[in-house]
Amino acid sequence: MLYIGCHLSSTKGYLHMGEEALSIGANTFQYFSRNPRGGSVKPFDAGDAAALSALIAERGFATPLTHAPYTLNPCAAAPQTLEFARRALREDLERLEHFPGAMYNLHPGSHVGQGVEAGVARIAESLNEAMFDGMGTTVLLETMAGKGSEVGGRFEELRAILDRVERPERIGVCLDTCHVFDADYDIVNDLDGVLEMFDRIIGLGRLRAIHLNDSKNPPGSRKDRHEKIGEGQIGLDALARVVNHPALRDLPFYLETPNELEGYRREIELLHGLRSA
Ligand code: FE
Ligand code: FE
Ligand code: ZN
Fold first, then answer.
1. Is 176 a catalytic residue?
2. Which residue of the set 7, 86, 95, 107 is catalytic?
3. pTM of the model
4. Which of 3, 12, 16, 129 has the most Cβ atoms closer than 10 angstroms to its Cβ?
């Protein structure tokens, strides 16, 4: 079974996203936990959440992926920014307890001049403060393009964070194909080699989700500009190999390509067509 969906707007609530996913042939989806650029959050609607959970169970969806807002920087140096990150992280994780077995995708953040080592320590500290005993959600650290002072552009940086977290059983990784390509991991010519490296440094057991995106820019560009599937520098053949790779094919795939709903519907159909038996 290929589990594939796309990023959807959460402004009309939980159940609406489930119905929208169904309408484009998706069997999972991703959404922002709160306003992605501001960080404000709507009051929680328990009835709406229960309605989505019922639909997910009935239709056999893979777990939706909740994405933290871009403004949440868990390794910020500025006290106010760091305080917001830790509070929002904690609130988001508390809210997700309404969805047993949820997954929460987090950018490790930008160290803004502190250096990678200080950034890594701060991120781990933020996670250790925000996560709590008995929580059911798994936090996924996203592989980053390494733009600016982003932490997480190298597998070793994610490893260093994992080594410092106090609840490792609740931490995983989400691999973004555009980001790793932009960070100069050659998934086009040597997907096996990249996955072997991932396994050696992080462990494939930690890999829980794939962000499936093409890239507007060449390998190693560190730009992080997503492109539609098959229209970028990664290309359709390489992305089809990602979707069919034995180590990846059972993971959920989330498209974050520059599309409206109709474009996402076509990409989901295209990838189903490229899926090997
Ligand atoms: Fe992301
Ligand atoms: Fe992503
Ligand atoms: Zn990106």
1. yes
2. 107
3. 0.98
4. 3
125 catalytic residue (yes or no): no
What local confidence, expressed as pLDDT, does residue 39 receive? 86
- The number of distinct structural domains making up the chain is 1
User: How many A from CA of 107 to the centre of ligand 3?
Assistant: 10
Q: From the candidates 86, 111, 170, 179, which is the catalytic residue? A: 179
Dihedral of CA atoms 226, 210, 1, 4 in degrees, nearest 10, equals -40
Report pLDDT digits (tens) over 9-64: 999 999 999 999 999 999 999 999 999 898 899 999 999 999 999 999 999 999 99
pLDDT of residue 111: 97
**Considering 7, 67, 111, 208, which one is annotated as catalytic?**
67
Residue 116 Cα, ligand 3 centroid: separation in angstroms?
20
pLDDT in tens, 189-202: 999 999 999 999 99
Read off the CATH number of the domain in which 64 is found. Answer: 3.20.20.150
Query: Pick the catalytic residue: 211, 227, 254, 267?
Result: 211
Calculate how far, in angstroms, residue 176's C-alpha sits from the geometric centre of ligand 2: 5
Using the mean position of ligand 1's atoms as its centre, give its distance from the Cα of residue 201 in Å.
21
124: containing domain: 4-274
